[in-house]
Design a protein that fits this description.
By secondary structure, the protein is of the alpha/beta class. Helix content is 35%, strand content 11%. The strands form two sheets. It has a four-stranded parallel β-sheet.
Length: 222
């Protein structure tokens, strides 16, 4: 079974999604993958870590990734993040570079973004699992239905969130977000292939904090 015990207020919001036919089919697929001894990332206990670390009530920023890292030891349930001690991937290195240029924050030697999640940054991938060495391999097995429902829930039931949509894939989700209630910040993806086309210089971190501040919310200590 896909581990999905979430010990905060997300549990009530997500339970109807867990009961959908699409999620039941997703669970069956993942169980079959495990039965076939295929290597799936992240570890089962980390699949829903983004929700565990940023409760529904606490969430005020959403950073949307595509799917988990597909190499050993990288994926741990948070978009763009890697555990302590793991080499920082190129996209995250570029995120840190923009953060330094925007807010003069020295680049962190660790790629672990749990410190962001603990402040209400939901680090959400569109697909929450992936097969080893096969990027995008679980993108069409039910996760999209689940994560798009999550984005819609946030848009409908929260106020004054900031959605950071980096790259064309993430920007497709803008249709799920009410722009009169929330701030949507879009730019090219931080990947080395596209960061120089407008990710660098987007100033999304300072813009996020400005928006939070004018709406009487605690800013993020990036």
């Amino acid at each position: 079974m896909v581990g999905r015990i979430i010990n905060n207020d997300w549990s009530a919001h997500l339970q109807p999604l867990f009961e959908r036919d699409s999620f039941q089919q997703l669970t069956q697929f993942l169980n079959q993958q495990n039965a076939n001894n295929l290597c799936i990332f992240p570890p089962k206990t980390d699949i829903f870590k983004a929700f565990e670390l940023s409760s529904f009530q606490q969430t005020k920023v959403v950073i949307l990734g595509q799917d988990p890292y597909h190499n050993d030891y990288q994926a741990h349930g948070l978009s763009f993040s890697v555990p302590d001690g793991v080499k920082i991937p190129p996209s995250l290195r570029n995120i840190y570079q923009e953060l330094e240029a925007d807010l003069n924050i020295t680049q962190n030697p660790s790629g672990n973004l749990q410190r962001w999640a603990s402040q209400g940054v939901l680090l959400l991938n569109s697909a929450l699992t992936v097969e080893k060495n096969l990027p995008g391999s679980h993108a069409k097995i039910g996760w999209i239905d689940f994560t798009e429902a999550v984005i819609s829930l946030l848009s409908q039931h929260k106020q004054n969130l900031v959605f950071l949509l980096w790259g064309a894939h993430a920007q497709q989700k803008s249709k799920l977000i009410n722009p009169s209630k929330h701030l949507i910040l879009s730019s090219p993806h931080p990947s080395p292939f596209s960061a120089h086309r407008g990710f660098f210089g987007n100033k999304h971190f300072s813009k996020t904090n400005h928006y939070l501040k004018i709406h009487n919310q605690q800013t993020i200590n990036w």
